[in-house]
């Protein structure tokens, strides 16, 4: 058995899953970018609580606490999605309650 | 068969045209809104709505009347007058930018500028006056701009609010945008301006007694006990948005100026009473 070849083979086999799996920083960055863009999509219907979560996520990431950062970004994304739904609903719903329509 | 199709199309058109033309004029909106509040508060004289919650609650009114012996905004109004009359570096004053030298004109603001295609509020006109005369603009929400605006409002006290929506599609669009903003629910708490001030005036929301839509802008700039100073209407807009967890928009943004345009139009005919006090 060729020992160096075997060692290289084992090392390569071990590195494949590591390369395929993104790190917590990359996971967070993707999630944060999605939350931020959804928040922006809410336009003039943005929620303060979403901004707060985004800020908290950024701070946690800067401190290297990616578990907390990801949790905050997840909350921000959910809140941002609700605010976008509100914006879409209100495009017509306001007429139903306005005086003079 | 063809005849039936023609009849169906004709019926469709006949139904669709009035739908497309539906939508009331600003004046129809205002009259309907006034009627709505008259029915909601039959014992309150229409002119009294400019006093907001003080028109609806006797205890609050008596506290306010006591406060009026020494109104907390008096010094700010005096400072505003001094700033208004002090010449800029180029020797001109604010008076040079306004009709009638800026005296007794508050009731005409905001107006729609058909050349610039935008709503001009009094505070915007004050800052544009400064910039046209080589001065730095003031902050929008409090301080000097609120004092100058308060002095100008004080020279209009008692004059009926007279906002015009000219026969211009852009002016009407600005009015409609303001109306849409007023009635659209925002923020995590899912409140619109109307949720409080159309549907629930006279009721308490925590420690705040809600005022009705009509008359609201007549008392600005306002000295709030909560602020401990004078603030502009856009400061209040931002505060309301924030209260319902909606991200406030910048003071004097197009959205807030259009909102002020709609809201002030609803108070047409009511007297200017600003500056005033609120809790």
Automatic annotation (TrEMBL), chain A:
Q: Kindly indicate where the leader peptide sits in this chain.
A: 1-22
- Give the record's keywords alphabetically: Signal
Q: Does this entry carry the keyword Signal?
A: yes
Top-level lineage group: Bacteria
Name listed for the protein in its UniProt record: SoxXA-binding protein
From TrEMBL, chain B:
Q: Which Gene Ontology terms describe the biological processes this protein takes part in? A: sulfur oxidation
GO cellular component labels = cytochrome complex; periplasmic space
Q: Give the main EC class.
A: transferase
Cofactor note (record): Binds 2 heme groups per subunit.
- What is the required cofactor set for this protein? heme
Q: Keyword Transferase: yes or no?
A: yes
The UniProt subunit note reads as follows: Heterodimer of SoxA and SoxX.
**What is this protein's name?**
SoxAX cytochrome complex subunit A
Whose protein is this, by species? Marinobacter vulgaris
